[in-house]
């Protein structure tokens, strides 16, 4: 259904959000440029001649973490839980949702905003918009990951282009991340079995470090059957069929010069629903299953130093990325009903350097990217293609001008040239300033706040959309931009941590499709606002935490609908609980987690033919055991997931209508795994 119904999005508004915020944007732009200079000058004037005092940036443990980062999943948790899907990776993070269904439907929503509105990267390589709105945006094997960081809203200038609703950064493991203490070589073997889907998973890795060289190789094969939902019925087209591999080579000299190269290949191939994000459609064409092959290839190379100086701390990274989806017409339909071969190829890189300045550090650099979008159309005499070139420059200062205050402020400038499928070329340039601050109020309380204006150019089109029609672009398309804000309080004392934050993201001129006139147009205002709450406590051998997220997402003044493709999804209120306890004498760790989603009922859903989104609760248990003290590197893990056999569709899954049955998540299942490191 057309998502841009209502007022003509191209009609000027005398009091539109962009005009209301013009004064604030100008002030922020001036602040992002002048604040670092003013603070640097003030601090320099207070110092003795020739002296340079450097204040430390924020440190959590031993890892530097940007003050804009709102959530991070560390390697320890990834290695322990060995997630096979993005849904399991983020199941304790209520601000991030992933739809139900097969790996082919994996897609990220942050505070209800679609992945198309986020800057998502794997080892610095951007993962652009999806090739097909019924498929996921990211084919990924989470067991390869070292960390996953989320910046839900305000993103710094050096996080990259197009972070309208925030950023998600995935970083894969290096050889040193895998080695046992004191070893130069090693290996890991993981064997797993899921009882519901009868999925066998095998992961093997070998790695070594010698004379400055580092080598790593990891491979995973996972294959199974269609899983059963909570009603005990098979969900056709959900069988796991994943092959993935990661190879890395690096060399570090005695002087700290480090060069690296990597290549990752992930392939999901199998029988999938024509529309993986939906259940079956109750008409003659809706129950079709297709053989589908989704692939991602990411290659990176770069240079950095592990012995930086005040003026020399470079980080150079170049990448090649290809996302592809092959959907042959196995059903021999005579019309363009979904068969195509689509891909997005990206080449780009980032060159940056961090400089020591009074009270902190200044990072400056340039980045560039060229996206080649192509589609083989089997029911048209011609194929379709687009090319998008973006060149940007950025500067970001991270400062601590006084003992209890930390600031991060910066500016991006980007130029985009978009050659559209209909032959038109759109050239646009924009600025993106930001500022964030943290101040230690006292008594363990920290106040924080941030604001960014993000210029996003023209969002990449959905590649496979052209399989059905010859779309054209409105000649007066305007670039998309966002105003993002987040602020709140954090408390930490001993093992106790608590945090509460308000957030608001307003996106002007998001791109949309008019399916009646077959034109790409500017849509109406997209807004996500709400709050995040979290609390946790850690003991030496135990820990508990609770997280709550309320996300109110609207599009054109009404609740966002499941059919607002590449825009957002209604997620409402989400609560997660988790806890772990280790019995040290038995070498046994017990864990439990639960996810609660509250019912969503709205007039906009009913008017568009959707039913209310039902509430659900999913509970999980786990146990990890080291069978023998002499075999400390052998771990057995058992999980009981969805123990109450709840029949539910995870939030951000396409909803129920009179003709569409939602795809349900996996019912009760037991997952058994064995991990050996040597």
TrEMBL record:
Belongs to the TonB-dependent receptor family. Its main location: membrane. GO terms for cellular component: cell outer membrane. Residues 280-643 form the TonB-dependent receptor-like beta-barrel domain. This is TonB-dependent receptor. It is a multi-pass membrane protein. One of its GO terms (molecular function) is siderophore uptake transmembrane transporter activity. Residues 71-166 form the TonB-dependent receptor plug domain. It comes from the Bacteria. Keywords: Cell outer membrane, Membrane, Plasmid, Receptor, TonB box, Transmembrane, Transmembrane beta strand, Transport.
């Amino acid at each position: 259904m057309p998502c841009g119904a209502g007022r003509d999005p191209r009609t000027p508004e005398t009091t539109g959000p962009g005009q209301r915020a013009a004064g604030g944007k100008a002030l922020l732009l001036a602040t992002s440029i002048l604040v670092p200079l003013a603070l640097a000058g003030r601090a320099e004037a207070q110092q003795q001649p020739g002296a340079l005092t450097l204040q430390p940036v924020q440190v959590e443990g031993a890892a530097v973490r940007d003050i804009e980062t709102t959530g991070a999943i560390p390697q320890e948790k990834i290695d322990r839980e060995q997630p096979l899907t993005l849904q399991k990776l983020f199941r304790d993070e209520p601000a991030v949702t992933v739809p139900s269904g097969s790996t082919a439907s994996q897609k990220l929503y942050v505070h209800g905003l679609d992945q198309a509105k986020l800057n998502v990267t794997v080892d610095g390589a951007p993962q652009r918009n999806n090739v097909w709105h019924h498929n996921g945006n990211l084919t990924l094997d989470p067991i390869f990951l070292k960390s996953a960081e989320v910046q839900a809203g305000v993103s710094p200038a050096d996080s990259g282009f197009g972070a309208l609703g925030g950023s998600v950064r995935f970083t894969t493991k290096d050889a040193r991340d895998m080695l046992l203490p004191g070893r130069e070589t090693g290996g890991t073997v993981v064997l797993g079995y899921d009882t519901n889907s009868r999925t066998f998973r095998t992961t093997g890795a070998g790695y070594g470090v010698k004379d400055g060289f580092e080598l790593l190789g990891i491979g995973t094969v996972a294959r199974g059957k269609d899983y059963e939902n909570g009603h005990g019925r098979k969900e056709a087209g959900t069988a796991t069929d994943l092959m993935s591999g990661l190879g890395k080579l690096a060399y570090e000299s005695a002087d700290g010069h480090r060069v690296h190269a990597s290549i990752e290949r992930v392939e999901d191939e199998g029988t999938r629903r024509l529309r993986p994000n939906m259940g079956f459609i109750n008409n003659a064409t809706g129950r079709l299953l297709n053989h589908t092959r989704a692939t991602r290839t990411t290659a990176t190379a770069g240079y950095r130093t592990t012995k930086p100086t005040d003026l020399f701390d470079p980080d150079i990274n170049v990448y090649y990325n290809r996302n592809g989806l092959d959907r042959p017409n196995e059903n021999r339909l005579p019309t363009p009903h979904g068969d195509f071969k689509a891909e997005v190829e990206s080449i780009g890189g980032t060159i940056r350097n961090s400089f020591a300045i009074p009270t902190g550090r200044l990072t400056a650099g340039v980045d560039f990217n060229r996206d080649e979008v192509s589609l083989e159309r089997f029911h048209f005499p011609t194929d379709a293609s687009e090319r998008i070139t973006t060149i940007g420059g950025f500067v970001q200062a991270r400062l601590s001008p006084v003992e209890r205050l930390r600031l991060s402020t910066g500016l991006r400038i980007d130029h985009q040239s978009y050659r559209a499928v209909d032959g038109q070329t759109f050239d646009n340039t924009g600025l993106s300033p930001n500022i964030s601050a943290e101040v230690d109020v006292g008594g363990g309380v920290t106040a924080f706040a941030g604001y960014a204006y993000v210029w996003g150019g023209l969002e990449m089109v959905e590649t496979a959309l052209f399989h059905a029609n010859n779309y054209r672009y409105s000649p007066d398309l305007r670039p998309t931009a966002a105003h993002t804000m987040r602020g709140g309080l954090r408390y930490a004392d001993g093992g106790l941590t608590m945090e509460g934050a308000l957030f608001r993201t307003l996106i002007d001129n998001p791109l949309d499709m008019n399916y009646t006139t077959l034109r790409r147009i500017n849509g109406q205002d997209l807004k996500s606002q709400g709050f995040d709450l979290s609390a946790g406590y850690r003991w030496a051998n135990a820990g508990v935490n609770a997280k709550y997220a309320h996300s109110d997402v609207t599009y054109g003044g009404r609740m966002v609908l499941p059919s607002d493709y590449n825009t957002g999804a209604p997620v409402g209120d989400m609560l997660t609980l988790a806890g772990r306890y280790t019995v040290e004498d038995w070498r046994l760790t017990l864990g439990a987690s639960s996810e609660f989603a509250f019912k969503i009922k709205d007039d906009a859903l009913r008017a568009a033919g959707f039913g209310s989104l039902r509430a659900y609760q999913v509970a999980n248990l786990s146990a990890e055991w080291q069978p023998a003290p002499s075999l400390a590197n052998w771990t057995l893990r058992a999980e009981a997931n969805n123990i109450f056999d709840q029949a539910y569709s995870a939030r951000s899954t396409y909803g129920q209508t009179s003709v569409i049955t939602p795809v349900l998540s996996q019912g009760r299942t037991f997952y058994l795994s064995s991990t050996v490191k040597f």
